[in-house]
Amino acid sequence: MKQYDAQIAIIGAGIVGIATAYYVKKVNPDVSVLLLDNGVPMALTSAQSGENYRNWWPHPIMTAFTDRSIDLMEEIARETDNLINMNRRGYALTTRSESTETLMQELDYGYSQLPGSEIRTHNSNASHAYLPPVKPDWQTAPSGVDVINDQALISKIFPSYDPSINTVVHIRRAGAISAQPMGQYMMQHFKSVAGRFLNAEVTGIDTGDGFTLHTADNSTIKTQKVVNAAGPFLQQIAEMISTTLPVQNTLQQKIAFEDTSNTIPRNMPFSIDLDAQHIDWTEEERQLLTESADHHWLTQQMPGSIHCRPEGGDNGTWLKLGWAFNNTASDISRTPVLMDTFPEIVLRGAARLNPSLKHYYLQMPTSMHHYGGYYTLTDENWPLIGQTDVEGMYVAGAMSGFGTMAACAAGELCALHLLEAELPHYAQALSPQRYQNPTLMAELTALSQKGIL
Ligand SMILES: Cc1cc2nc3c(=O)[nH]c(=O)nc-3n(C[C@H](O)[C@H](O)[C@H](O)COP(=O)(O)OP(=O)(O)OC[C@H]3O[C@@H](n4cnc5c(N)ncnc54)[C@H](O)[C@@H]3O)c2cc1C
User: What is the DSSP string of 15-30?
Assistant: First the structure.
């Protein structure tokens, strides 16, 4: 049995716990911090991420928060000669709908408080002003948003898209990074300034004169402040001090495979089909599915937001496809059971925007990798960062499908709370105290979409 002391103990060495540890030490290297995990750092949810980032959100608070995170990721990219493989070809939101009024209103509102976030519209008369996503380099990519309403221009820039697409909204401050080297970099820095990592499972927490954490191997940790950064296990940690957090877990999946037949141009941005759809089954398949009690739902209308992007850079050959259609909360497991039909579902769904993917209907490439993890999320899909109802107990989590892109800003924000430093304007709204603000909560409940991708 060992005993440890630290001013701050952080439970969870996923990307969020690591970023919190990193920014605490960046702001004040003299604070003693112990980071705990019962597994390998970055190996749970953080290893399942699609690694996409964007500053596009339906609400200006989340826009400001993720935009700040992108500033911080760019800082790391600059410091490390882009060890984190940051690129920036944007997010392309596509729709067949001719009436994009709601989409445009959400866009205007989401970006309304972000300086320099120009929204440019391109139709056949003004198409010359549009800068195509030719290069992956994040430093030279445009900012703001381009809205393209001209089908001829859409086909020219995005040749793999189905010709039925009427509008593309191209979010320019968006792209992908590599999360594992980012986590490693922050961890190395944390250790280099006397940050400590302990491989141990927290099994209990006593309160009174600070906190005493108990671990499965009978060690104890005495600390003044605890951060719950346990990802899908947030609730279990909260229950150790007889509290609860307003979070649930939904299982989400992705596939990655080698695009052996070059069906998708390598310079295609992360592309999202916003429209709801009926999956493209053959009549025979549809009949069989209709007759199956378990699979009947696959013949019904499916939600939009299926996405596809090239993975591995311009010289790579892989693709990633994802579709976060599952909104049923589930119990959690460190090794979740994936839906064996998911690869087929996501491939057919994605082929609606990129019909060239139909090439793989008959035979999926043998390299196909099917993986998944939990979105730990609140009803409004905003994170929980800050002190909880229990003094000295903090939370940094509920990072849903945006935890990789928002980890740096979340870690920085949690560090500022812990060190009682000046907080950014979005701090209160992202803290557990937002539930005491009925005006904000009513606004969030009324939003037609919550930014879940
Ligand atoms: C399929 C999928 C795709 C995604 N795609 C994207 C994307 O494109 N972009 C994006 O930004 N985000 C994406 N995300 C979301 C992102 O991956 C998560 O939000 C993020 O990884 C959460 O990090 P975390 O540190 O909160 O949790 P985790 O990575 O789960 O880390 C929590 C850690 O806590 C540890 N722990 C738990 N309980 C204990 C205990 N009792 N004692 C000690 N340690 C404990 C665990 O071992 C774990 O290491 C995706 C998620 C999924 C599932």
Answer: HHHHHHHHHHHHH-TT
Residue where a domain stops, chosen among 342, 360, 377:
377
Please check whether residues 424 and 306 belong to one and the same domain.
no
The alpha carbon of 116 and the centre of ligand 1 are apart by a number of angstroms equal to 32
Specify the DSSP class assigned to residue 144. Answer: S
> How many A from CA of 442 to the centre of ligand 1?
28
- Are residues 405 and 368 located together in one domain of the fold? no
Does residue 422 share a domain with residue 299? no
The pair of structure tokens assigned to 186 is: 């922050």
Domain range for 188 is 3-51+179-246+379-446
Residues having CB within 6 Å of any atom of ligand 1: 11-17, 36-39, 44-46, 48-53, 201-202, 229-233, 252-254, 372-375, 397, 399-405
Q: Which atom of ligand 1 is nearest to the CA of 251?
A: 53
Instruction: For residue range 216-242, list pLDDT tens digits in order.
Output: 999 999 999 999 999 999 999 999 999
DSSP 8-state assignment for residue 401 = T
First to last CA, the chain: 44
Task: Compute the distance from residue 398 Cα to the ligand 1 centre, in Å.
Answer: 9
Assess whether 185 and 98 both reside in one domain.
no
Same domain, yes or no: 260 and 242: no
> What is the domain count for the chain?
2
Beta-carbon contacts of residue 261 (< 8 Å; ≥ 6 apart): 359, 360
Q: Do 386 and 417 belong together in one domain? A: yes
Percent helix, strand, coil in the chain, to 5, is: 30, 25, 45
Amino acid 126: pLDDT: 59
The domain that contains 103 carries what CATH number? 3.30.9.10
| Domain boundary, last residue among 377, 401, 424 | 377
- What tens digit of pLDDT does each residue of 251-288 get? 999 999 999 999 999 999 999 999 999 999 999 999 99
Nearest alpha carbon, ligand 1 atom 26: 231
Residue 256 lies in a domain: yes
pLDDT at residue 308 above 90?
yes
Size (the chain), residues: 453
Residue nearest to atom 33 of ligand 1 (CA): 12
Are 301 and 373 members of one domain?
yes
- Cβ contact 67:172 at 8 Å: no
* pLDDT, tens only, 30-56: 999 999 999 999 999 999 999 999 999
